[in-house]
Structure to design on (401 residues):
């Protein structure tokens, strides 16, 4: 058995805006679109799937979501499926867990990914199951996103840590505009087309085919970004330098290198290593750097061995702080890393359906490496209560995009 796990196929839905055209789709509906497309692109039949791993962060009132999604995708009902929640890291840890199953020899081919529809997250009404006293009832909104352990808003955590590293509001707005303009350019060139499997939405009155990410803003300007008010009590985070509350799904078909039949597609890339990191709950901007350091150590590589970085734009502050930490505080070196980071934009522009973003970044990295004719990429993100995830992806042979 090879020590390497390869990606045979990759697909995602377009990422929809909050309240956009895909707002009524269930998570299993979304996930099955991406899962089916990943199998088709891999040349893999549903009955060849041994394990189905799926990340979801906001399941709402639903349950057994991976199982529902696998069945919708046509995976036989005697195959293993499981849903995993590691906040924004959920789809990347699904890949890591599926990879472990393959390397152990327990799994031959796996589907791993994630999905989210933040437009369908319900309000929660706590404490009324056994009746309520006279007076008002309070509903809580899970989309006012805060740390469940400390209760501090994520936006506050991001702006506080940004300030500790000298990352200003202006720098965050500049990064946000960069994300939007790079994504708009990539979208115009059709660079995301290789990733996206269109979604047909039927609202009972008409049918709409969604083929492009909905949140990209090619008209983004620094003047407009500067006028936005900060949110959730933060000092620097605005709706412009943070991602939206999005909808989407992304999946990879994985197998051991050399252990698949001639009928399957040629591997897109290999996953050299994955790693997790955990630290103080408030350190959401720097925890991806810890994950990067861990995965580089595990793979025997150094920063200079990496051609591309995909660092999730949970806030603009995250890639800015993470690159500064990776550069040991050396701003000039951090700028060199930033030049290789999110070269086609990131979640601020494309959207951040939290359960799916990690795998979206992985397939964006793979597509970029294939266009470049090979190389190595690191995908990294923060999530949850001081958690991080990273993966090293490698492609050593040229291939069509």
């Amino acid at each position: 058995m090879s020590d390497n796990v390869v990606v045979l196929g990759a697909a995602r839905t377009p990422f929809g805006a909050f309240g956009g055209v895909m707002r009524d789709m269930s998570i299993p509906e979304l996930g099955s679109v991406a899962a089916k497309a990943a199998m088709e692109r891999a040349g893999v039949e549903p009955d060849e799937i041994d394990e189905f791993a799926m990340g979801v962060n906001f399941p709402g009132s639903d349950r057994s979501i991976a199982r529902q999604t696998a069945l919708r995708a046509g995976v036989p009902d005697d195959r293993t499926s499981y849903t995993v929640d590691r906040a924004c890291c959920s789809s990347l840890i699904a890949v890591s867990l599926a990879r472990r199953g393959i390397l152990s020899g327990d799994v031959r081919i796996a589907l791993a990914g994630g999905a989210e529809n933040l437009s369908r997250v319900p309000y929660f009404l706590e404490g009324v199951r056994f009746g309520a006293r006279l007076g008002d009832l309070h509903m809580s909104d899970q989309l006012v996103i805060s740390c469940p352990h400390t209760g501090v808003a994520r936006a506050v955590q991001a702006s506080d840590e940004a300030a500790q590293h000298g990352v200003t509001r202006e720098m965050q707005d500049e990064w946000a505009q960069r994300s939007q303009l790079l994504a708009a350019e990539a979208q115009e060139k059709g660079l995301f087309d290789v990733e996206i499997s269109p979604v047909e939405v039927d609202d009972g009155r008409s049918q709409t085919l969604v083929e492009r990410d909905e949140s990209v803003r090619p008209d983004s300007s620094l003047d407009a970004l500067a006028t936005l008010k900060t949110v959730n009590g933060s000092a620097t985070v605005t709706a412009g330098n943070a991602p939206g509350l999005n909808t989407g799904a992304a999946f990879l078909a994985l197998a051991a290198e050399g252990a698949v039949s001639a009928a399957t597609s040629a591997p897109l890339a290999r996953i050299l290593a994955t790693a997790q990191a955990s630290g103080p709950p408030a350190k959401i901007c720097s925890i991806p750097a810890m994950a990067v350091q861990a995965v580089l150590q595990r793979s025997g590589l150094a920063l200079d061995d990496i051609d591309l970085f995909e660092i999730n734009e949970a806030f603009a502050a995250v890639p800015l702080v993470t690159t500064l930490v990776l550069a040991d505080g050396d701003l000039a070196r951090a700028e060199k890393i930033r030049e290789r980071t999110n070269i086609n934009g990131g979640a601020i522009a494309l959207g951040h359906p939290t359960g799916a973003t990690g795998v979206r970044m992985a397939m964006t990295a793979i597509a970029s490496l294939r266009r470049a004719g090979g190389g190595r990429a690191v995908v990294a993100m923060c999530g949850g209560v001081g958690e991080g995830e990273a993966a090293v992806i490698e492609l050593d042979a040229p291939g069509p995009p």
